[in-house]
Write a structure and sequence with these properties.
- This is Aldehyde dehydrogenase.
- GO terms for molecular function: oxidoreductase activity, acting on the aldehyde or oxo group of donors, NAD or NADP as acceptor.
- InterPro entries: Ald_DH/histidinol_DH, Ald_DH_C, Ald_DH_N, Aldehyde_DH_dom.
- It comes from Saccharothrix saharensis.
- The protein has 2 domains: 19-240 and 450-468, Aldehyde Dehydrogenase, Chain A, domain 1 (3-Layer(aba) Sandwich); 247-436, Aldehyde Dehydrogenase, Chain A, domain 2, CATH 3.40.309.
- The longest helix has 25 residues, at 111-135.
- The strands form 5 sheets. The chain has a 7-stranded mixed β-sheet with strand order 13-14-15-12-11-16-17, sandwiched between helices.
- The protein is α/β, with parallel strands linked by helices.
- The protein starts with 18 loop residues before the first strand and ends with a strand.
- The chain has helices spanning 56-74, 78-94, 96-107, 111-135, 168-181, 196-205, 221-230, 261-270, 294-307, 326-342, 377-380, 396-404, 419-428, 452-458, and strands at 19-20, 22-24, 27-29, 36-40, 47-52, 139-144, 147-155, 158-163, 185-190, 214-216, 247-251, 284-290, 345-348, 368-371, 387-393, 411-415, 433-436, 460-468.
- It is globular and about 75 Å long.
């Protein structure tokens, strides 16, 4: 195991600037009203840079630049755009470590996750949409002998995108890749908790794109993000509703029939609630264990959870890092206190973690297992931290009813040695994604309700031409 040096420290693979302005029209420009805000690292709690605080004037300037570049970019061929996306993917791969350290320092997540999951998925995303747009076709319908209808996919023009803080670089890729592949210009507004790492990415790929095709406006949601999202100057694209993150994981009794590799894998699946510090809507934050094995399985799962390594996020052996912001830390701790007041039993964790030394000021929470009733708020509401609420169920119908008794179920996991039972449970559970005998806490590109072709369509419109002969 190794530990990367912090950005800017001796031997580090990346450095942050002291200040980041907006990236508009291919260059950095200061905020119209001169405001900046500080950006602390969750690793130590110390400020490491400051970022321009965007307002309506900055949003409009970015939109001006995007509209100025949109027509030219739209007229490039799909093959040209695909080549650019492949080059972006190559740049990310060539600077994988630098980007990973940059994101870890700003978001608090373990560098191993960024190196092995987030950034490889980002690379795959750009290459996937490069392939999708190369393979895209229009359509033709013969209306009658002398009349033919042609259908062409065309870009929407300018799209505005808000990047969430829990997967800053991966989500930026998922916003940029389809929009650029479709031929649109883009204005991004990073989350105010994690704006700087996106600028590290932009600095690596800016020369690959014409000025104005990608613009980044920093700032707070109410001052910049909401204005961008509501602007009549950006095209509307389908947005999947986010019901929140109370995904469930179900363990049927046959899981514990033998103490073998499958059982060990199931215990590992249980600990997936702590991946990305629980800051993901598909992290399984509700655990359902069938009554005959409940006590024994929970004891083993608790032991496995306590063995998960929490430590310095830049250490490649660390599995659980820091919460992204002080606000998120306080929210998680408030829910832990609420759970105690509701009568939940803390099986392990349940407190802020002091990792000592320079990490004492960081935003760390011990991975926590709460036992209680499914009607408790800690079961029903999104905590977005390394917390799983566990309860028991009696039979198949009870399990399905309990899993579906939430407005916040994005995904679900099912564990059983009985393939037929697992299949029936997966079909009955009301979630967009159901994993069987495994768990991916990351919503994978192309694995879910939509694939690359469907998403590409969201960023385009169809031009229909009726041609008479």
């Amino acid at each position: 195991m190794a530990r990367y040096a912090a950005p800017g420290a001796r031997g580090s693979v990346v450095s942050y600037r002291d200040r980041y302005d907006h990236f508009i029209g291919g260059e950095y420009v200061p905020p119209a009203k001169g405001g900046y805000f500080t950006d602390p690292t969750p690793v130590t709690g110390e400020v490491f840079t400051e970022v321009a605080r965007g307002t309506a004037e900055d949003v409009e300037r970015a939109l001006d630049a995007a509209h100025g570049a949109a027509r030219r970019w739209a007229r490039t061929s799909p093959a040209e755009r695909a080549t650019v996306l492949d080059e972006v993917a190559d740049r990310i791969e060539d600077h994988l470590e630098a980007l990973a350290v940059a994101e870890t320092w700003e978001s608090g997540k373990p560098v191993r996750e960024v190196l092995t999951t987030d950034l490889p998925l980002a690379v795959d995303c750009f290459r996937g949409f490069a392939g999708a747009v190369r393979a895209q076709e229009g359509g033709i319908t013969q209306i009658r002998d002398d009349l033919v209808a042609y259908r062409f996919p065309q870009p929407l023009g300018v799209v505005g995108r808000l990047v969430p803080w829990n997967f800053p670089l991966l989500m930026a890729a998922w916003q940029l890749a389809p929009a650029l592949a479709a031929g649109n210009a883009v204005v991004l507004k990073p989350a105010e908790q994690t704006p700087a790492s996106i600028h590290v990415l932009v600095g690596l790929v800016a020369d690959l794109l014409p000025p104005g095709v990608v613009n980044v406006v920093n700032g707070f949601g109410a001052e910049a993000g909401m204005l961008l999202a509501a602007s009549h100057r950006v095209a509307r694209t389908p947005v999947a509703p986010k019901p929140g993150g109370k995904s469930a994981i179900v363990f049927f009794a046959d899981v514990a029939a033998r103490r073998d590799a499958f059982y060990d894998k199931a215990l590992e699946g249980f600990t997936a609630f702590a991946l990305n510090q629980g800051e993901g809507s598909t992290c399984p934050s509700r655990g359902l264990v069938q009554s005959p094995i409940y006590d024994e399985f929970l004891a083993d799962a608790t032991e496995r959870t306590e063995a998960v390594k929490q430590g310095h996020p830049l250490d490649t052996g660390t599995v659980i890092g820091a919460q992204t912001s002080r606000e998120q830390l306080d929210k998680v701790l408030a829910y832990l206190e609420m759970g105690r007041r509701e009568g939940a039993r803390v099986a392990c964790g349940g407190e802020r973690a002091d990792l000592g030394g320079e990490l004492s000021g960081g935003y760390y929470v011990t991975p926590t297992i709460l036992e209680g009733d499914h009607k408790m708020r800690v079961f029903q509401e999104e905590v977005f931290g390394p917390v799983v609420s566990v309860t028991r169920f009696d039979d198949f119908d009870d399990a399905v009813k309990t899993v579906n008794d939430t407005p916040c179920g994005v995904g679900a996991g099912v564990w059983s040695r009985d393939g037929g039972l697992a299949y029936r449970a997966g079909r009955e559970i009301q979630a967009s994604r159901v994993w069987v005998n495994n768990h991916h806490a990351y919503p994978r590109s192309g694995v879910g309700r939509e694939d690359h072709r469907v998403v590409l369509d969201h960023y385009q419109q169809t031009k229909s031409m009726l041609v008479g002969f």
